[in-house]
Amino acid sequence: MGLEGKLTDMPMLDLLRVFQRSARSGKLMLWNEVEWALIWLLEGQVVSAVVLHKPAMRPQHAGEEAIFQLFTWADGHFRYNPDSVRGSYPITIRRSTSDLIIEALQRRRAEARPPAPGELTLQTPLCILPQMAGTNEYIRLSVEEWMVLTRIGQQATAQQVAAQTRLPQAKVLMIVDHLIACGLIMCVPLADLPQRQLTVEPPRSAASHAEGNAPITNLTRAIRRRLQQLAVGA
Q1: In angstroms, what CA-CA distances link 91 with 36, 63, 70, 71, 74?
Q2: What are the pLDDT digits (tens) for 8-36?
Q3: 47 and 23: one domain?
Q4: Hey, CA dihedral for 133, 137, 141, 144, is it positive or negative?
Q5: Structural domain includes residue 196
Q6: Which residues form the domain of 39?
Q7: Half-sphere exposure of 102 (CA within 13 A, CB side)
Q8: What is the pTM of this model?
Q9: Which of 6, 75, 86 is CA-nearest to residue 43?
Q10: Residue 186, SS3 per DSSP
Q11: 91 and 67 in a common domain
């Protein structure tokens, strides 16, 4: 039985595990806007892979490196065609698929930049790494760590997580730091802000400057009078 879909619905990690558990043999084709890939599977194990660059279909990666490259794809499509004919597979990968998955995840964690000392704060935006939420069976988490991980979702701050879980903020920061080290979450990079054109106003006269500050001055005086009234009433 064939299988097809989108990597956003079934990422590379889930695909390989499905084939492992069902011990399927066949060809898995993957493609996105700029690359095309082909993986050969034999009884659930990856035995060969290649990634080609479109439109000339020039080889970019082969063997194990092709698998590691496919783990970096954020989106794309896939189609699996079963093939039970033995001996028709070019064996270029001899490591187990489990070993390939572990190394691919380790590489992705290494690429996720950890926050510098003092950089992680209660207001730091956080998000779950793509294709990672609830899928890494090689990491053991405590109940509190799972609580924090599930509250982060697509994006949240440590302060928001602390309010939702009712855990101490210091505890949440420690857990977040551990989850980042495990490669499960990351700090959201700041979006590139559009450049703003600065305009320089001509200097104003002292009179106009005083007029411009008048509303602020009056407001300040009103606040002071109100504070004095409250102090006298107390």
Answers
A1: 20, 9, 18, 20, 27
A2: 888 888 889 888 888 888 899 999 999 99
A3: yes
A4: positive
A5: no
A6: 3-102
A7: 8
A8: 0.51
A9: 86
A10: strand
A11: yes
